[in-house]
Write a structure and sequence with these properties.
Helix content is 40%, strand content 26%. The chain is an alpha+beta fold. The chain has a domain of 206 residues. The strands form two sheets. It has a nine-stranded antiparallel β-sheet with strand order 3-4-5-6-7-8-9-10-11. It has a two-stranded antiparallel sheet with strand order 1-2. The longest helix is centred in the first third of the chain and has 37 residues.
Length: 301
């Protein structure tokens, strides 16, 4: 026997062909089981964390008891339409913003531009105001001036609301349009200037407003005693906003000979301080001749 045969007798193979195939199948199953177990160990904590974060019943529309939900009685919620806006207060219907500005301007023409001037020109309840010329303004006279202003307000309110009624009513709309065209005229130019003319029956007054590209508020008013008559007073008013808080204005009354300059500064939205200088050059005017230097603090709503 050769040496090769002897060695082959003592040589033992590690595995047979059948053994190799069974061992490989076992290894594959072991690896697959390990991968599945690892994936399960990763997914289960993540799912548990998500379930712990979201608790059913704490959010609207979720419930934890289905049996209770089956026996519960539900009521359908009916969405009502939004109610229409209510009618404005009666004070806003009678006195709107436009009329309030007009009345305030007319009051300033009659009783003083600034609040300090209005206070100093008004007598007390039981006394009289003595001007520097020696003339006295009694309480009776001051009340008569206030009464005239109240009568003007009543006439202007009647005119304004009659116009509004005629504007809405079809039978009177044509009459209103004719009256509006006659009492309101506007002329424009290509250079940026425009002139608005308005006739006020309640005054009776004529108002001219001149618009210009320089942001100067220029107005001219003619006050008359009749519907068509010679003006009793011509008032020129110019106002220029120096800044957002500071305004410089000039008021001139031609017949009365009054020249007034007012520098006003707004401290807040309701409080303002003013410096007023007024000169009266005509002793025969409607107002009593006097020169005024005033520094005042006013409040307005």
């Amino acid at each position: 026997m050769s040496d090769l045969d002897q060695e082959s007798k003592h040589f033992k193979p590690l595995c047979y062909t059948r053994g190799v195939s069974g061992t490989g199948r076992f290894l594959r199953q072991l690896i697959l089981f390990t991968l599945v177990s690892s994936a399960a160990s990763v997914c289960v904590p993540a799912r548990a964390a998500d379930e712990a974060a979201v608790v059913f019943g704490e959010r609207p529309g979720y419930t934890t008891d289905i049996a209770y939900e089956r026996n519960s009685r539900t009521h359908e919620m009916v969405m009502l339409p939004r109610p229409p806006p209510g009618a404005p207060p009666i004070a806003e219907v009678i006195f709107n913003e436009k009329l309030s500005r007009e009345f305030q301007q007319q009051y300033e023409y009659k009783f003083g531009v600034t609040q300090a001037e209005q206070v100093i020109n008004s007598p007390g309840r039981n006394d009289q105001y003595t001007y520097n010329t020696g003339r006295n303004a009694t309480l009776k006279q001051y009340r008569r001036d206030q009464q005239k202003f109240g009568e003007y307000m009543a006439r202007r309110l009647l005119e304004f609301h009659v116009d509004n009624y005629a504007k809405r009513d079809r039978s009177f709309r044509q009459v209103y349009e004719i009256k509006d065209k006659v009492s309101n005229v506007e002329v424009k130019s290509k250079t940026g200037y425009s002139v608005k003319w308005k006739y006020n029956i309640a005054g009776p007054t004529m108002d001219f407003q001149i618009k210009n590209p320089y942001e100067i508020d220029a107005r001219v008013r003619l006050e008359m005693s009749g519907l068509v008559s010679k003006p009793n007073e011509v008032i020129y008013q110019f106002s220029y906003p120096i800044s957002k808080r500071v305004t410089l204005s000039e008021l001139i009354k031609q017949m009365d000979g009054t020249y007034q300059t007012v520098l006003a500064r707004a401290l807040t939205s309701h409080v303002a301080v003013s410096l007023s200088v007024s000169f009266d050059t005509n002793p025969q005017g409607a107002n009593i001749q006097q020169n005024i230097y005033l520094v005042g603090l006013g409040y307005s709503e």
